[in-house]
Structures are given as C-alpha cells and as structure tokens.
TrEMBL record:
This is Myo-inositol-1(Or 4)-monophosphatase. Mg(2+) binds at D13, I15, D16, D175. SUPFAM superfamilies: Carbohydrate phosphatase. Its cofactor is Mg(2+). Keywords: Magnesium, Metal-binding. One of its GO terms (biological process) is signal transduction. It comes from the Bacteria. InterPro entries: Inositol_monophosphatase-like.
Amino acid sequence: MIGDDPRYVLVIDPIDGTRGAAADLEMACVSIAAARYGPAPSIADIEYAMLKEIKTGNWMYADVHSDGIESGGYPDPVPSVGKTDDLERMFWSLEFNGHPARLMLDAYGHLVDASANRGGVYVFNSASFSISRIITGQMDAYVDIGNRLLRDRPETEADFRRVGHGSILHLFPYDIAASVFLAERAGVVITDAYGAPLGDTLLLEIDPGNQRSCIAACTPRLHEALISEIRW
C-alpha cells in the first residue's frame, strides 16, 4: 500500500515453491494479485492476477476488465482444462509440507493407490504451480486438506505443529490469491475442502483461522468425487 490514498493492495508471493526453486526445478512461481483497497480485502476483491514461472518464464494473467486469460511461453493455448472424471485415471498433486504424513495417507492413501499407476500422483510443494497445471491441462486435480482435518479434529493440532516445527503451515492467502482468480476464470472447480468458495479468505491475515484447505479439479464430477471419497 503506497501513498496517502491507496486504491489497491498487492498480495505478492515472490517464490511460491521455495523447495522447487532451491532444487532448480520448474515448480516455482511468482504470484501477484491486486485487490481493491479496503478495511478487509478478500480473494473475492481481486481484480488483477498473474503467475510467472521462475525457471521457464512462462506466465498467465487475467483481470476483471477483460475476458479469458492472457499467457506466454506455453506450447498449447491457455486455458486447456481437462475433462477427466475418473479418480483412477486422474493426474493430481497433493501437499505434505507441514502436514503429518500418517493423517494425510489415512485420508487419501486409497486414492494414491488407485491412481498412481493408471493416472499420476505428484508433490510439487507449490499451490500456485499445482493449480496452474490444471489450467494448462497437465494436471486434473490439486488436493490440500490439512486445514479441514485440523478444523474437524482439533486434537490433531499437536501433530500439525510437530511437523511444522511449532507453526501451523496450511494455505496462506498469498499462496493462492492469484491462482484462485485464474483458476475460476479458466473454469476450474476450486473450493476449500468442504466445497465452499474461497472468496471470503482475507488477503492480509495469516493466522491459522484464516488459513485454508483447497480442492481443485478440472470437472465438477471429479471435484465432487474427491470430496466424497476422501476419508474425513
């Protein structure tokens, strides 16, 4: 926020995918979103959004003043959202950073078993990159359920803090601000793990109460199947 009468607030994650960038892999993005300035700006207030891949330079951009998504560097048109409905054949990414592996595998280990051979299972350690792969058509779904598990089962907080080295590390607003806007523009079905819209996520609050879960999928049927089949 710059000046005495700011019009916009910028939400920037300079490296979403720190571990991928450290390993010189592709799964790291600069994420930038701009929302109309106000007392409590939320994802629903975003008017401009951009993701740029750090290694390749590929980028995608959208705003409220024009239709579609602009992009550069990708070999195929963007968006190119897939049509997969089948849990066994989906290509999907999931999250383990700050998420106790036992809790995660209890919830969706059977889906990993079902899809690892006929589809594909990936851990990118970047929400922006994961969601953007659904927009490009390379992935069918993205699943980060940690925050729902904690909300449903508060007794797991100690486990989450243990693997987070004392902190709760679920989806922060800056992790998903730009990618949610772009995904919705592309026609991706993207919600929290309860199936509720992410628009009320406050952009400038990072406490555990404002952290989020996310399930994103290329089709409504796949999204519904994921929420139904994960063992909550």
